[in-house]
Write a structure and sequence with these properties.
Layout lengths: L12 H6 L12 E9 L3 E6 L4 E5 L5 E2 L2 E2 L6 E8 L7 E4 H18 L3 E10 L2 E5 L3 E5 L18 E10 L4 E5 L1 H18 L5 E10 L2 E6 L2 E6 L20 E10 L4 E5 L8 H7 L5 E9 L3 E7 L2 E6 L21 E10 L4 E5 L7 H8 L5 E10 L2 E7 L2 E6 L21 E10 L4 E5 L8 H7 L5 E10 L2 E7 L2 E6 L11 H4 L5 E10 L4 E5 L1 H21 L5 H10 L1
Parallel strand pairs: 15-17, 20-22, 25-27, 30-32
Antiparallel strand pairs: 1-2, 1-6, 2-3, 4-5, 6-7, 8-9, 8-11, 9-10, 11-12, 13-14, 13-16, 14-15, 16-17, 18-19, 18-21, 19-20, 21-22, 23-24, 23-26, 24-25, 26-27, 28-29, 28-31, 29-30, 31-32
Length: about 575
């Protein structure tokens, strides 16, 4: 409460100076107590305890809505400043007195615990300006425990600060709020570690975000809120859900006091959508969802927040050969599908896009019965056969074994190229495995069907050597029909090298010794002809001895040589 002093006449400046400054021992540059005796438009008149009267600039006083906060009777500290002129008044400075008092207080604080109170008044380069009676600097890194994106939000707040750098001579003061916050946090941390337990629901503040989760301060202890525990729905990045400084309620999932490791969960405070999914997404149910992810093997469909299903690449089309799911769907597409399977234990739902459409393969067997002759273009050639286009997205395979009855085809490209028009006959339709078997050779009669009649065992025929091997020679007896003359059937004498016994292109006489039409095999013999001739000569000899009684076998052989 302000003290009231009666108005008295102050001594003149000359008298004051003659007395050595003041009668009461107050000198120029001293800080003294004064009482306000009047308030003018520019100055405030105040009287010291020794009755010395002086003027204080009105601007030294704070104002509210333009009104100076000073009135008659108020007491204040002022710095005595004397004007050494004949009629000049004694000048007092409240502002300088306040500043000196503040510096004294700061000096005393630094000599003690170094803690001062102040108000953050503005954001400046590198940090904040704080009014602690004089202006001090608070670096951005020392303002809070964690980074704050916008320092402006701290302007106007009042806090306690630690003086970390002080120079009265240079009027330089650097503060830290973080030092005090860390001390508070350490105390809270100790209490929090004693109170934390798995399953507890606690309140924390988001410190910072990474691509794999958010670190949350729960009572001075940092816990990890993993990205997979933010929401039951798919979260691409924690920043989609949280931001630094957010206050959140989380559940303690795991707690290791020895290493101070805490795993937190946010989604665990919400109802698990999979609890209802089991009854909702039964096999055969038609569903709609949005494509949220695409991989090499399929696309993930979000059926609802927290529930996704996989459309495997093989379940995207009945007829198209899908090389990559991105050729069929894009992220964000709304897709209709059918539930194929649901595994509650692994939280997996298998979906099919093609099952939401009519299956053309179920009608194919009726439209293309076995024996149907069709035409198409060669779409692809492989080592094992030729794929022929039947209709959009449906190809039939002509296996290499069904290309020709007679030709030895090493590779289908010897006969066809992509784009060729071909005619084929349907051999089999397997709708379950989505396969059609075609044949080209079946368009013609199998020449092997008449081989047994045309070339019976013992028949003597001519053939051309097509190929020699270590075990014999392949001999063509008519176009497309060939047989094997084994090395053991070449001569009565031992033949070590069939390549020297016969040559490719040579025409030889052979005898059919075996035939298997089903396996398309014919056994031929060269030495069998000699044996057959010897038997014929022997029969001739026996007949001759009966008729003439004097011819010998040697005579018959000599006669044969002459012939």
């Amino acid at each position: 409460m302000s003290e009231q002093h009666p108005q008295t006449s102050a001594p003149s400046l000359e008298a004051f100076l003659a007395a050595g400054g003041t009668d009461g021992g107050i000198h120029e540059g001293d800080i003294a107590r004064a009482t306000v005796t009047s308030v003018g438009t520019d100055v405030v008149v105040a009287t010291l305890e020794d009755k010395t009267e002086g003027q204080v600039p009105l601007k030294d006083f704070p104002s509210v809505d333009g009104a100076p906060q000073v009135k008659v009777g108020d007491t204040l500290d002022v710095l005595v400043e004397f004007r050494h002129t004949q009629d000049g008044p004694v000048l007092f400075s409240k502002a300088r007195a306040d500043a000196l008092r503040t510096w004294d207080n700061i000096t005393a604080a630094c000599e003690g615990d170094g803690v001062v109170e102040g108000e953050i008044v503005a954001q400046v380069k590198g940090g904040l300006s704080v009014d602690i009676g004089v202006k001090a600097f608070l670096p951005a890194s020392q303002a809070t425990l964690w980074p704050v994106p916008n320092l402006d939000r701290l302007v106007g707040e009042k806090h306690r600060f630690k003086v970390v750098k002080f120079s009265r001579k240079r009027a330089n003061i650097v503060l830290s709020r973080r030092v005090l916050l860390e001390k508070e946090r350490d105390a809270q941390k100790k209490e929090a570690l004693q109170a934390l337990r798995e399953g507890a629901v606690v309140t924390g503040r988001v410190k910072n975000l990474t691509h794999y989760g958010a670190f949350v301060d729960v009572g001075g202890v940092d816990g990890l809120l993993h990205v997979t525990d933010l929401s039951w729905a798919r979260v691409q990045h924690p920043a989609d859900v949280l931001k630094p400084g957010d206050e959140v309620q989380v559940k303690v999932l795991k707690f290791d006091p020895a290493h101070e490791r805490i795993s937190l969960g946010l989604k665990q405070l919400q109802e698990d959508p999979w609890m209802a999914a089991v009854a909702k997404y039964t096999p055969g149910a038609r569903v709609k969802g949005r494509v949220v992810s695409i991989t090499d093997y399929g696309a993930f469909l979000e059926l609802e927040a927290g529930v996704e299903g996989l459309i495997h690449i093989s379940e995207m089309s009945w007829t198209r050969r899908v090389k990559h799911p991105s050729k069929v769907v894009n992220i964000g597409d709304e897709v209709e599908a059918v539930v194929l399977d649901l595994d509650k234990a692994t939280r997996r739902i298998s979906l099919g896009m093609k099952q939401a459409q009519a299956n053309p393969w179920t009608q194919l067997a009726a439209r293309l019965p076995v024996g149907t002759v069709l035409k198409g273009k060669v779409r692809n050639i492989t080592d094992f056969g030729v794929f022929v286009g039947i209709e959009e997205g449906i190809d039939g395979l002509v296996h290499i074994a069904d290309l020709s009855w007679t030709q030895r085809v090493k590779h289908p490209s010897e006969l066809y190229k992509v784009g060729d028009d071909v005619e084929a006959v349907v051999l089999n339709v397997n709708a379950a495995e989505e396969r059609i078997s075609l044949g080209i050779k079946q368009l013609h009669e199998d020449p092997w069907a008449r081989v047994a009649q045309a070339y019976p065992r013992g028949a003597r025929i001519k053939g051309k050597v097509l190929k020699t091997t270590d075990f014999g020679a392949f001999i063509e007896i008519e176009p497309g029909i060939e047989g094997l003359c084994h090395v053991s059937e070449m001569s009565d004498a031992r033949v070590d090298d069939p390549h020297t016994f016969v040559t490719v292109g040579q025409v030889v006489d052979v005898m059919v010794i075996d035939i298997n039409s089903a396996d398309h095999r014919i056994g031929l013999s060269i030495r069998g002809l000699t044996t057959q001739e010897e038997r014929t000569d022997y029969r001739a000899y026996m007949n001759a001895t009966k008729d003439e009684g004097r011819a010998t076998l040697g005579d018959i052989m000599k006669d044969k040589v002459r012939r």
